């Protein structure tokens, strides 16, 4: 894990017309935590995110707003999506837009390659099309409309009528990859995770795959099919290619070889696109399939999936303005088992903020630093002899580091944080039982006091390094207050417990200040 090997991780690219909500921020934070963790583990980490900007719906909205689709997308990228990344401190290495020249040109190269190799043919397609989903729907994806759409079939996701379309299309021979995909899932059980997602994908593919219509001729906002400019590329086919065009596919072989393949973190609603269509496309092109496709669960608010149409959309800034970006990142990574559905509530967020961040971690840091100032004039003591209690803390530091690393390898971010929190809890218990304030009253206990404060400071340093990917702002401040050299984000996680302390502490404002306002 620490040999400088590539760790390329992607989020789904944002559908530019969406309104940012905490579900988008959740995916971004998870990928960002993983990227930061791997970077601090010595890997060649690379985090990609971006925007999906083609398709009929975007063309329609732009037209309705009296601007070109490109101008419409430009506006949304700058006013909605890049600000979202800032709100939750995403440290992405690249931001790709499907309207970037590097994407359009190289997506065309990919398509031409598949066409030349015989994986694409011309056919006729008739079917029900949902503009909201940008895809043809199977009869099983439709339900009976209600209210104003009574008597019409509607998309089960959008509750809006579908359109019956009939067009000449280019088709990708996806059906020919059915067995190769099943072999892939079988030989590499980690390819799709978690297990529930894997099982769903396998049973879907076992039914046999249809060929995929990959072009549209009824509108022109998209990448032109290189051998027939009257067609544009189906928006999903276009969008999936961002993961390779962003790292040099078609134009920079060295960069592409360095980065690809990637780990894809996706919501489970778009799992099939990533775990079925995408690897089939790559197999057709003779390219390596992704390292892993990990489908995370849905965020539920009041028992409903987060979405604007359900009126449960919560802007991430509503949370960060009160609690801060670190608390946002911590809460969603800690409270929800990554891969499972999870419920958000203001009460739960508030309770965890208070008990875990403010009282558990923040207060520990404040107390230890205040004692070093009071009893040692701010000079971090060196320890002579360690007691059994000190050695137990040492053991926990090593154990928490190893457990957290193992958990992150399985993308079990919640387990990694829980492992680190054992150290938070043990350090709090250690301070209570060792009573440094009592030791300080007895000059004969000076060596013991030094050993206790040294152990506590070193433990805080270990925590700062291990928690830096999750709460980067608080740990940067803590690291500085502990006299740590350099940036905490540059410290190696696999050696987190080896840090032995700086020379002096400096004052630390509360890492997680008390929040008085009622929220919700
Ligand atoms: Zn739909």
UniProtKB/TrEMBL annotation:
Molecular functions (GO terms): ATP binding; metal ion binding; methionine-tRNA ligase activity
Catalytic activity, EC: 6.1.1.10
Keywords: Aminoacyl-tRNA synthetase, ATP-binding, Cytoplasm, Ligase, Metal-binding, Nucleotide-binding, Protein biosynthesis, Zinc
GO CC aspect terms: cytoplasm
InterPro entries associated with the record: Anticodon_Met, Met-tRNA_synth, Met-tRNA_synth_2, Methionyl/Leucyl_tRNA_Synth, MetRS_core, Rossmann-like_a/b/a_fold, tRNAsynth_Ia_anticodon-bd
Residue positions binding Zn(2+): 130, 133, 155, 158
GO BP term, pick one: methionyl-tRNA aminoacylation
Cofactor(s) this protein requires: Zn(2+)
EC primary class: ligase
Methionyl-tRNA synthetase anticodon-binding domain: residues covered: 380-516
Domain of life of the source: Bacteria
Cellular localization per UniProt: Cytoplasm
UniProt motif 'HIGH' region: location: 14-24
Motif position, 'KMSKS' region: 305-309
Chain ranges of the Methionyl/Leucyl tRNA synthetase domain: 8-368
Catalysed reactions, semicolon-separated: tRNA(Met) + L-methionine + ATP = L-methionyl-tRNA(Met) + AMP + diphosphate
NCBIfam families from the UniProt entry: metG (TIGR00398), PRK12267.1 (NF008900)
Assembly, per entry: Monomer.
Function: Is required not only for elongation of protein synthesis but also for the initiation of all mRNA translation through initiator tRNA(fMet) aminoacylation.
Family per similarity comment: Belongs to the class-I aminoacyl-tRNA synthetase family. MetG type 2A subfamily.
Protein name listed in UniProt: Methionine--tRNA ligase
The organism of origin for this protein: Cryobacterium tagatosivorans
Gene name linked to the record: metG
């Amino acid at each position: 894990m620490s040999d400088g090997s590539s760790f390329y991780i992607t989020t789904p690219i944002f559908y530019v017309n969406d309104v940012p909500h905490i579900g988008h921020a959740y995916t971004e934070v998870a990928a960002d935590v993983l990227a930061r963790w791997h970077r601090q583990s010595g890997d060649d980490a690379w985090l990609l995110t971006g925007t999906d900007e083609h398709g009929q719906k975007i063309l329609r909205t732009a037209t309705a707003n009296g601007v070109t689709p490109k101008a419409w997308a430009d506006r949304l990228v700058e006013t909605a999506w890049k600000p979202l990344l800032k709100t939750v401190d995403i440290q992405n290495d690249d931001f790709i837009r499907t309207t970037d020249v590097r994407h359009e040109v190289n997506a065309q190269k990919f398509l031409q390659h598949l066409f030349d190799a015989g994986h694409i043919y011309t056919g006729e397609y008739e079917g029900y099309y949902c503009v909201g989903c940008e895809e043809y729907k199977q009869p099983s994806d439709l339900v009976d409309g209600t209210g104003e759409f009574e008597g019409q079939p509607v998309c089960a996701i959008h509750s809006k009528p579908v359109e019956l379309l009939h067009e000449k299309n280019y088709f990708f021979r996806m059906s020919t990859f059915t067995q190769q995909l099943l072999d892939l899932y079988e030989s590499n059980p980690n390819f799709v995770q978690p297990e529930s997602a894997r099982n769903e994908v396998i049973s879907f593919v076992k039914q046999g795959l249809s060929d995929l219509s990959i072009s549209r001729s009824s509108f022109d906002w998209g990448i032109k099919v290189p051998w027939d400019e009257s067609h544009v590329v189906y928006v999903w086919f276009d969008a999936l290619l961002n993961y390779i065009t962003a790292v040099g596919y078609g134009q920079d072989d060295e960069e592409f070889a360095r980065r690809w393949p990637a780990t894809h973190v996706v919501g489970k609603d778009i799992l099939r696109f990533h775990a079925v269509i995408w690897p089939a496309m790559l197999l057709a092109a003779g390219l390596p399939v992704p390292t892993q496709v990990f489908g995370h669960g849905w965020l539920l608010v009041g028992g409903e999936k987060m979405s604007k149409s359900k009126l449960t959309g919560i802007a991430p800034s509503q949370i960060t303005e009160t609690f801060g970006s670190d608390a946002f990142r911590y809460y969603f990574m800690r409270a929800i088992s990554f891969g499972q559905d999870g419920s958000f509530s203001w009460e739960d967020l508030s309770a965890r903020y208070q008990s875990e961040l403010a009282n558990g971690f923040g207060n520990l840091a404040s107390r230890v630093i205040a004692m070093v100032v009071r009893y040692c004039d701010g000079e971090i003591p060196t320890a002579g002899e360690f007691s059994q209690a000190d050695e137990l803390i040492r053991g926990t530091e090593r154990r928490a580091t190893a457990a957290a690393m193992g958990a992150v390898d399985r993308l079990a971010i919640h387990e990694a944080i829980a492992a680190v929190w054992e150290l938070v809890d043990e350090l709090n218990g250690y301070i209570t039982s060792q009573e440094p304030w009592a030791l300080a009253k007895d000059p004969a206990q000076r060596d013991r006091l030094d050993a206790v404060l040294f152990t506590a400071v070193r433990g805080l340093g270990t925590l700062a390094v291990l928690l830096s990917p999750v709460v980067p702002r608080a740990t940067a401040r803590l690291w500085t207050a502990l006299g740590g050299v350099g940036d905490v984000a540059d410290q190696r996680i696999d050696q987190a417990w080896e840090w032995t302390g700086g020379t002096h502490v400096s004052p630390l404002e509360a890492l997680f200040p008390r929040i008085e306002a009622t929220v919700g």
